């Protein structure tokens, strides 16, 4: 069903129909203590119960790990669903109709579901073929690749017969419209009717993260046609959005907070066979931002384990940029040229695989090593060429601490003095700093005059920064109260660039930092407990959010005015003028914004 953008009334209807005790009780053994119920937290390992459910207010909170929210949050967290998916699931359990966008979109979703059902039928057909006499050659191929019969069953592997219309005939006998089978990418229309698209191939069914059959990958066991043939793009299958194996690995990925990314089907199956079950495969295609966003729903760490050949190394570099940009922590498990996770796993087994993945290096180290390996650094020319590329890479790092650490690493690997490499980087940064368009250089020249204007209009009219006012403390408290009950609201603040430094109350600053970083300590737990024991905010989230942003805007303007007043006393130096200019840009950006 095509899910609409849910109205508040519908969400409240679902929430009222669902008992959070019943939902949580499916996963957590609860016992009553006063008005609340307690149990062992499902989100982290503990021996003493710190997980609390309040049936009166219909929310849960763990004082150990800080997780909390309403029944929707619990379903999202435990079943790795989006909010619409969680809301629809609960509504369907209670027999509440799920809103749809339109009859047209509802029809589209029905068509998508039809394609998924046809794919499932095809998977059953291929599965049966593999276990019959006609599948003997395919079974021999799989055994040669180290895929035992039980593994083949676990991953629903099958075989497409080397005929023209075996699948088409099967689907027709099942009452399937072959035009729909063509839309699913399984058959093609020919002069004599529909023919099978996959022939003479070991078949790997592809399921989405919800376990629905959306496509196939076929590996030829003869020399005919391409080595691998995948389902083309359909209404339910897009290689840039699907990760093979996530339906099987997602619980392990979540438990370990880490995913291992490989390229192909057999790579993943081989790692599973070696006991490594937090694995997904990118279907041999370029890793995409959609893949990264999907993985972020399950973990915060990614290990790239692509093939050791040149193509695999290029794919690794691209994958690093995408995963890092999405906010995931990235490491790289390198393999020698000519090796892939499949062959490595079969050679070295469980112990070797574990040691290999445990040796995965931070992605910056991998990038440095990769650059150096592409040059003959035994020669002067090769060393200079490598250093030029390294300087370009390291100059891009915005953190001075990170830049210093990796400059030291790069110098050791390249065999040059750290001071020399650091000087090259500083020179490049300096050149970048002075290479400004003419209008910005003019702005720098006028920075002092514009600073005076800001100070006249702002700083001289304001009163000195005061201790936290009661109204400001209330704004901070109300927002945090909502965050504890609705963890997803944190994203709205982070999208506005709100950090722990924006909170003036020290306890609230500490709690916001803990929530943002996903950590828990005694102080944060105590503050959270105190806030949750207070009355619920009288104002809505939207009103509290807007009021809080107004407070932050005023604070940020005051901070910049304070800095400007100090900088104005220093009349010399390009660096000071540059900082003046940057502060002025920040000031006007905040001043003109609706909130911050």
What can you tell me about this protein's structure?
With about 600 residues, this protein is α+β, with helices and mostly antiparallel strands. It folds into 5 domains: about 10-95, Zinc finger, CHC2-typedomain (DNA Primase, Chain A); about 105-230, DNA primase, catalytic core, N-terminal domain (DNA primase DNAg catalytic core, N-terminal domain), CATH 3.90.980.10; about 245-360, Dna Topoisomerase Vi A Subunit, Chain: A, domain 2; about 370-435, Pheromone ER-1; about 460-590, DNAb Helicase, Chain A. The chain is about 55% helix and about 10% strand. It has 26 helices and 16 strands. The strands form 4 sheets. Strands 1-2-3-4-5 form a 5-stranded antiparallel β-sheet, with helices on both faces. A hairpin with a 2-residue loop joins strand 7 and strand 8. Helix 3 crosses helix 4 and helix 16 (about 380-395) packs antiparallel against helix 17. The longest helix is centred in the N-terminal third of the chain and has 28 residues, at about 105-130. It is globular, with a radius of gyration of 29 Å. Residues about 435-450 and about 455-470 have low confidence and may be disordered.
């Amino acid at each position: 069903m095509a899910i609409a953008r849910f109205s508040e009334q519908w969400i409240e209807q679902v929430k009222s129909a669902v008992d959070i005790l019943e939902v949580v009780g499916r996963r957590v053994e609860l016992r009553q203590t006063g008005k609340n119920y307690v149990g062992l937290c499902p989100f982290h390992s503990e021996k003493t119960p710190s997980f609390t459910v309040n049936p009166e207010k219909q929310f849960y909170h763990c004082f150990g790990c800080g997780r909390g929210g309403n029944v929707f949050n619990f379903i999202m967290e435990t079943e790795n669903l989006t909010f619409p998916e969680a809301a629809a699931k609960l509504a369907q359990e209670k027999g509440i109709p799920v809103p749809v966008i339109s009859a047209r979109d509802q029809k589209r979703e029905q068509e998508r579901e039809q394609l998924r059902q046809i794919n499932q039928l095809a998977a059953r057909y291929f599965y049966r073929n593999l276990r019959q006499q006609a599948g003997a050659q395919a079974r021999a191929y799989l055994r040669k690749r180290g895929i035992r019969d039980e593994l083949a069953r676990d991953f629903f592997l099958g075989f497409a017969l080397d005929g023209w219309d075996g699948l088409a005939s099967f689907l027709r006998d099942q009452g399937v419209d072959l035009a729909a089978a063509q839309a699913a990418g399984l058959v093609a229309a020919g002069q004599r009717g529909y023919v099978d698209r996959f022939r003479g191939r070991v078949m790997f069914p592809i399921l989405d993260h919800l376990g629905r059959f959306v496509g196939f990958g076929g590996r030829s066991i003869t020399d005919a046609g391409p080595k691998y043939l995948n389902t083309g793009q359909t209404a339910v299958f897009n290689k840039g959005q699907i990760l093979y194996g996530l339906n099987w690995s997602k619980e392990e990925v979540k438990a370990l907070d880490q995913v291992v990314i490989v390229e192909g089907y057999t790579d993943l199956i081989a790692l599973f066979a070696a006991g490594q079950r937090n694995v997904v495969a990118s279907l041999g295609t370029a890793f995409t931002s959609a893949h990264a966003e999907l993985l972020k729903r399950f973990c915060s760490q990614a290990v790239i384990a692509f093939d050791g050949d040149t193509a695999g190394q290029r794919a690794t570099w691209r994958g690093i940029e995408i995963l890092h940009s999405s906010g995931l922590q990235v490491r790289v498990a390198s393999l020698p040229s000519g090796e892939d996770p499949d062959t490595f796993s079969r050679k070295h087994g469980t112990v070797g695989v574990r040691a290999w993945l445990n040796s995965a290096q931070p992605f910056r180290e991998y990038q440095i090593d990769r650059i150096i390996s592409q040059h003959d650094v035994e020669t002067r020319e090769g060393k200079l060429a490598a250093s030029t590329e390294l300087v370009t890479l390291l100059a891009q790092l915005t953190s001075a601490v990170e830049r210093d650490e990796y400059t030291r690493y790069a110098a050791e690997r390249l065999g040059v003095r750290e001071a020399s490499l650091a000087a090259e980087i500083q020179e490049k940064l300096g050149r970048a700093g002075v290479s400004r368009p003419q209008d910005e250089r003019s702005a720098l020249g006028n920075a002092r005059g514009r600073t005076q204007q800001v100070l006249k209009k702002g700083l001289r009219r304001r009163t000195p920064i005061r201790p936290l006012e009661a109204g400001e403390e209330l704004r901070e408290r109300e927002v945090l109260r909502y965050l504890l009950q609705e963890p997803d609201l944190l994203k709205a603040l982070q999208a506005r660039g709100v950090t722990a430094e924006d909170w003036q109350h020290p306890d609230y600053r500490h709690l916001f930092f803990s929530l943002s970083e996903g950590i828990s300590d005694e102080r944060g737990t105590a503050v959270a407990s105190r806030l949750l024991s207070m009355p619920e905010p009288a104002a809505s989230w939207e009103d509290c959010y807007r009021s809080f942003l107004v407070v932050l805007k005023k604070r940020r303007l005051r901070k910049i005015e304070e800095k400007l007043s100090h900088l104005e006393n220093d009349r010399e130096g390009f660096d000071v003028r540059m900082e003046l200019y940057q502060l002025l840009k920040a000031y006007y950006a905040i001043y003109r914004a609706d909130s911050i």
